[in-house]
Amino acid sequence: TSRWAVLIGGDSEIRNRDKDHPGLYGRVQQSFLRAYNRLALNGNPPEFFEVASVDSTLAQPRLLWAANGLIHGGEVAGRYGIYNIVLGTTHETLPREGTPADTLDRLDLAGLARNIEEIARILAAVGDQETQVGDIDAVADQRGLSLRRVIPADYSYIHPRFRNDTAEGAMTMGRHRGSSIPNLPVPGAVVMASLEDPWNRVFWPHNKFPAFDPFLLAMTDQNGTYALGGLPKEDSAQPVAFAARFDERGTIVEVSDMPSRQTLRTRLNMLRVHPGFYLMSPAFWPDQAFVFDAIGNANLGRDTSERGFVRTEDGVVTFFLEEKVSHAKIFNVRSAVGLNNADTGPAADAMRASLGRGFPIDGNWLGIRPAFQGAGDLWRLNEARLALLRSKDIVNSSNEELHGRVQDLIRAAGESERALHAESLAAAGLLSAQPVYETSRTTMDDLVAAVLILLALCIPFAFALERLLIGSTIIYKQVVWFAAFFLATFAVLYLSHPAFAVAQTPIIIFLGFTVVVLSCLVIFILMQKFETELKLLQGMTNTVHVADISRFNTVMAAMSMGISTMRRRPLRTALTAITIVLLTFTILVFASFDTRRGIVRLFAAPSPDYAGVLYHPPSWGTLNPDYVDLIRARWDGQADVATRHWVCPEFPKDPDFVAALADGSNPVTVKGILGIDPRELRHRADLRALLQIEDPEAIRDRVFLTEAVAELLGVKPGDRVLVKGIPLEVGPLVDATRFTALVDMDNTSIIPIDYAQMQETGVKSTGAADDLLTQQVNWANLPTDSVVVMSDENCARAGGKVSVVHLYTADSAAAARIAEEYARMMDRTPIMATRQDGVYRHILGTVVAASGAGDLLFPVLLGALVIFGTMLGSVADREKEIYTFSALGLAPPHVASLFFSEAMVYSVLGGMGGYLLAQGSMKILTILAAYGLVQVPEINYSSTNAIVTILIVMATVLVSAIYPAIQASKSANPGLLRSWRPPPPQGDVHEVVFPFTVSAYDLTGVVSFLKEHFDHFSDTGLGAFMARNTRMVRHPDGALGLQAYLALAPFDLGVTELFDLRSAPSEIPGIDEVRIRLERKSGQPGDWIRLNRNLFHNLRTQFLLWRSIPKDAMEHYRQQTLVHLKQNHV
User: Fold this and answer.
1) Burial 556-582 (b: 16+ CB within 10 A, else e)
2) Which of the four pLDDT bands, split at 50, 70 and 90, describes residue 543?
3) How many other C-beta atoms lie within 10 A of the C-beta of residue 803?
4) Residue 711 CB neighbour total at 10 angstroms
5) Predicted confidence (pLDDT) at residue 886 exceeds the cutoff of 70
6) In this predicted structure, what is the pLDDT of residue 212?
């Protein structure tokens, strides 16, 4: 328009958004307002000045008065927190900006001269306010223009120095020919410092123009040094560096490497390069692509690579690679694929050939069609992997189906005569091949992981076989036979398991397993050594007070005893083992536990009065324009593709925009614009009713306002208004209530989302792939009276972005078909579509299928009963042995562990043996099938199948042994109490009768034995307790005792007590019982009771050890007590 205003803000990335805050511009606005009022009082006000830009009548100081992408020279000052404004015309659209039509003859020179004259008058009045307000500092002085507290005082400046005839500072250093060390200064190089690292995400924090990025430029001098300034130290994102040297023809010959991106302030290392680029196929929002050396497959674009420079931005992968790299590959399954693997070569080398030979660096990169190239390359890579899996009889029908559909898309793209349609089919093929790639790679990785677990099970399997079948008593023979069984098992796995065929170097699997086993062994040895050193510190390495008993030794002893019993009953052991082996074999052959991919449907809402498909990002956001073109081109002719553009605040600091009358007067702030495609109105009677129009084309030159907005503007239907500079006619007024209630097929409002409010309140979507199917997030919509409606074309001109895509079809059958095709193209992303019975979410999801599992219930139950009967019979047969074990001192839990150990042996033998039987049978059947004698059954070797099968068998065996083990423990101790429990304390005193009796003669030695044990803990913080003032006493009744002051571990709880042990006559003459009295001195009562359990366990161990020491040692301790009592005259 002809009106001009004070414009605050801008869209440049250079602006410091923390320091240059629009809310601090009040004093500047007041200065201009005073100047305008002064001119108005003098009868000479600027006619076309927009007073609303300075009088604070509007909600925000920063409003979009100008066109999108406002970038001006004053924003450099804004980076330093200094006020910067633009005096410019309002409601501009700048349709010829940056085009060849932007010529001088098209400028409105008369209007420009008129505005310049008014600007000059108002600036003169602004500068002459000393006589008006008596404060020249209000405007003319920098302290008034900007707040000094927000101007950064310390900025980073890079400047070279010359000291001692040597140049110092930030430098660009190249390499001599044939050298890998950068020590050659590079003069004349252009250094670019980007203030923000390029990124790829759904929202952009600015109105970014394609291929335009803010940066600072400098050129190196003859010493290779350069100077740059204005780099704030407090910025969270450090500047990103790039340097290039050009030859006389303008060709880049040297660039900085990837590590130099973060070393702008110190040094940029250069290398001689060949340039190249690769266009990216349309995708939703692509990730960063990687560039590889075609020969060694080295990633040349990683952050630490010194062999090139790679950058992905604006749909283009730009790279500069060192001169010795002749061919390059581009790969990231989520962004760009360029392998050049069209010639697969011999079948034997198909896997290696599928990795591609790359593209010549000096080739014609523009001649590559990225969608066709990427789809074909990825399909051939998937085909090579799937063929390898098929050769090992590993077939996932769902993945094969997806793979076949990708081939159909590629074939259809090659046959299509419409260029854009063919391109969209090829791009869809590339997107549809991504889940096939991920599934096939996951399957191959799982095979390797599974064989490592199977190799781990080979160790107990080989040990059990040696003990059962050989049972040698010579350690050397045990080791030899163990190694023989292990190598035999490994040989069967090597010949039959597909993981060794999948791995390019199969020996790596065995080496990896060996490393894990040896690492565990080393850790075990180190822990044993650590415990030994701890005991050495305690002085307990050579003492009878140490019980050389460990749980590992107990388990091994129990397993050895269990295996000995199994060897004594060979027939029953053989039959039981064969039963478990056949059980494993049955589950493995007749059931398939595998991961399936397919279209999952979930009811979302009742059917609307139209048929179609709806897509928007699960967490909302905007859509890549190239991606929208892909959708439109693929289903052109099958559905009416309609887009919705939104203009809405995306970040909390984003400004509102201004709508005004046709002459630019009476501005009103508006937050959002809803752009509707006229094609959508043809199918949506509810939208036509909302807008009160019958002809869908009527929306093209109209804007639809709510009654509240129309009242603020002072307009009625038929009037002309300006919305973001676009002149439009006001259509029928929109009913705000109906506008709020109107929803799409997925029950979401058609009103744009208020992203800024959602970010301020911290509401986030999980975004997890597995949750997208049922994800429901309550997003906040913009206020109804702050949104206007126009056509999507005009909304795009106003800066709107595509946020919703509709594909309207003739019927629900077509909608369901398109939704499934769409879902296969968008992995793990919900696609809404109408069906005959309602609206459904369609998603290409993962379903864990267990085919044949129901038929295996009875075989598993039968196997469990067999094990249960075998173990229960073993308890009855070994009843006398159980009594013997109990008499020898084995506790009931130890007796139960004997049977669990036996069950564990059965589980390992059955699980691993059944798996090896299935593997061996499969190998034999494969050989026979080659001669047409048999048909090979489908057995899946994936990790899910193998590990779940073995776990089922082992769990079945162990569960079946629970009841027999309990019965065995009851036979060992017919009573109800399985362990001794001390009585509860009385206040701070705990008196117990210890469950041990000793003769009056032995008690004399026991006292010295326990005193020696307590003395070991007198000066250390290690162990269950710390003892002080330990002494033997004789009570007045002649009973011997032991007293000490104890601190119980952990010592940070502060639990201390007085310990008093004494003997007392029992019911049996000549036998004394042991009484213990504990008196709490500090610590919490609960901690005191709990920690005393450890003390009682320690004392119980010492009494057990007393019974195991030789008689000479007992007599030695008895003499020590007598000597001590005689010396102390106790």
Assistant:
1) eebbebbbebbeebeeebeebbebbbb
2) low
3) 21
4) 14
5) no
6) 58
User: If residue 807 lies in a helix (H) or strand (E), which one and from where to where?
Assistant: strand 801-808
Q: Work out the number of other CB atoms within 10 angstroms of the CB of residue 770.
A: 11
pLDDT band at 201 (very low <50, low <70, confident <90, very high): very low
DSSP bridge pairs for 404 = none
Cα gap 1116→1109, rounded to integer Å = 11
In this structure, the number of other CB atoms found within 10 A of the CB of residue 547 comes to: 11
* Token pair recorded at residue 955: 């769990």
Confidence label for 823 from pLDDT (cuts 50, 70 and 90):
very high
In this model, does residue 206 exceed pLDDT 60? no
Please report how many Cα atoms fall inside a 13 Å half-sphere around the Cα of residue 974, on the Cβ side: 3
Condensed to tens digits (0 to 9), the pLDDT of residues 439-448 reads: 998 888 888 8
Calculate the average pLDDT of the chain: 82
The more confidently predicted of residues 999 and 973 is 999
Nearest alpha carbon to residue 1008 among 1124, 1126, 1110 = 1124
Tokens of 1018: 């007198």
Query: Helix or strand or coil: residue 848?
Result: strand
Alpha helices in 277-357 (DSSP H): 350-353
959-967 average pLDDT score: 82
Instruction: Find the helix packing angle between 857-877 and 943-960, rounded to 10°.
Output: 40
d(CA 632, CA 635): 6
Task: Extract the tokens encoding 657.
Answer: 């925009």
Q: Residue 768's pLDDT band (boundaries 50, 70, 90)?
A: very low
CA atoms within 13 A on the CB side of 522: 6
Task: Supply the DSSP symbol for 365.
Answer: G
pLDDT tens-digit map of 393-425: 788 888 999 999 999 999 999 999 999 999 999
Beta bridge partners of 844: 599, 827
CB 468 within 8 A of CB 573: yes
Q: How many Å apart are CA 95 and CA 108, to the nearest integer?
A: 14
**Phi and psi at residue 7, in whole multiples of 5°?**
-100, 125
Q: For residues 450 and 417, what is the distance between their CA atoms, to the nearest angstrom?
A: 48
| Contact assessment for residue 734 and residue 706, using Cβ atoms and an 8 Å cutoff | yes
Q: Which two tokens stand for residue 199?
A: 């990124």
Query: What's 464-513 look like in SS3?
Result: HHHHHHHCCCCHHHHHHHHHHHHHHHHHHHHHHCCHHHHCCCCHHHHHHH
Return the residue matching tokens 């500069």.
Answer: 320
Tokens 């950064």: give the residue: 152
The answer to whether 45 touches 118, Cβ cutoff 8 Å, is no
DSSP string, 60-124: -SS-B-S-SS---TTHHHHHTT---EEEEESS---TTTTSTT--GGGS-HHHHHHHHHHHHHHHH
Amino acid identity at 255: V
Query: How far, in Å, CA of 630 to CA of 626, rounded?
Result: 6
Query: Which pTM value belongs to this model?
Result: 0.78
User: How far is CA 565 from its chain centroid?
Assistant: 51
pLDDT, tens digit (0-9, with 9 covering 90-100), for 465-492: 888 888 888 888 989 999 999 999 888 8
- pLDDT tens for each residue of 1072-1119: 888 999 999 999 999 999 999 888 888 888 887 887 788 888 888 888
Q: Report all structural domains of the chain as residue ranges with CATH numbers, in order of start.
A: 4-150 (no CATH), 157-368 (no CATH), 599-850 (no CATH), 989-1128 (3.30.310)
The b/e string for 1044-1061 (b: 16+ C-beta within 10 A; e otherwise) is bebbbbeeebebbbbbbb
Judge whether 357 and 320 are in contact, CB under 8 Å. no
In this structure, the number of other CB atoms found within 10 A of the CB of residue 10 comes to 24
Q: What pLDDT band is residue 510 in, cutting at 50, 70 and 90?
A: confident
Residue 993: in which H helix or E strand, if any? Answer: strand 989-999
Comparing C-alpha atoms, which of 573, 588, 587 is closest to residue 906? 573
Q: Taking the mean position of all CA atoms in its chain, how far away is CA 311? A: 23
